[in-house]
Design a protein that fits this description.
263 residues
Length: 263
């Protein structure tokens, strides 16, 4: 996941709104969003190589998402897959703070990452390149492959688009997907310098990435209502084309009404 836009306690109807793009090598095998057979309470896509995921939610309202931290240094030898950090939290029962405290003790084993975790009682962010875990304050935030709210062009552009979508009482997923499909590169003078070279910075600067072997694989919109109603829509992109396959799920959180159902 390389762009996460989120509104946390910033809308009268929804306590959490997320619009996110997962960027990955086209060849990496992936399963679309579904309820996991080995963890029936977890709704997420799945990385079939590492076994983890980039973003998901549980029937009990546990939410997690991860992005890689862009850096040129080689990852630690035999580094664990970062996607398991999301899956482990979604499956578990630990409070976010407790989960992140335990993770901090072994965070150096991983390549650089940003992790968002929440359970309905708050949202936390932790990066093994950014010090101690922090509470995510109510408001509109953006996370790419640097620290939370680092003002990269795609983050700033995405936050503006999310803010505009939140002006409606009933947030329209299509408006959020339009933000996520923005493939316009940023002007050179606004590009960050992350050590990958100017040409690569240009390719990676847009919210939606296209390149011969790497790009945006999936776009996801998540709406968590204050009444416990959840809408989760994922569009898996066909590389090199402008079509996609959609997986859409609507359900109520446990304790908020009826059991989950997919459509």
């Amino acid at each position: 996941m390389c762009l996460i836009l989120l509104a946390h306690e910033a809308h009268p109807r929804y306590r959490l709104v997320v619009a996110a793009n997962r960027d990955e090598a086209y060849a990496r095998p992936t399963a679309p969003a579904a309820w996991w057979a080995d963890a029936p309470g977890v709704l997420a896509g799945r990385d079939l190589l590492g076994g983890g995921t980039w973003m998901g939610i549980s029937r009990g309202g546990r939410f997690a998402a991860v992005t890689n931290f862009r850096e040129t240094a080689a990852p630690p030898p035999d580094a664990p897959t970062r996607g398991r950090l999301v899956g482990d939290f979604l499956r578990g029962a630990e409070a976010p703070d407790a989960y992140l405290r335990a993770l901090a003790a072994r965070a150096g084993e991983y390549a650089g990452f940003n992790l968002l975790v929440g359970d309905g009682g708050g949202l936390r962010w932790f990066s093994n390149r950014g010090g101690a875990a922090q509470a995510v304050e109510p408001g509109i935030h953006g996370l790419s492959n640097a620290l939370l709210d680092t003002p990269w062009p795609k983050v700033d552009r995405g936050r503006d688009g999310l803010a505009a979508a939140l002006l409606r009482d009933d947030v329209d997923p299509e408006a959020l997907f339009r933000v996520l499909r923005d493939a316009e590169p940023a002007p050179d003078e606004h590009l960050p310098d992350t050590g990958v070279g100017l040409e690569r910075e240009r390719v990676l600067s847009s919210p939606f990435i296209r390149s011969p072997e790497y790009g945006t694989r999936a776009s996801t919109v998540l709406l968590v209502g204050r009444d416990g109603q959840v809408r989760f829509v994922e569009r898996t992109v066909t590389p090199g084309r402008d079509d996609w396959a959609e997986a859409a799920h609507e359900f109520r959180l446990d304790g908020a009404g009826a059991a989950p159902s997919a459509r």
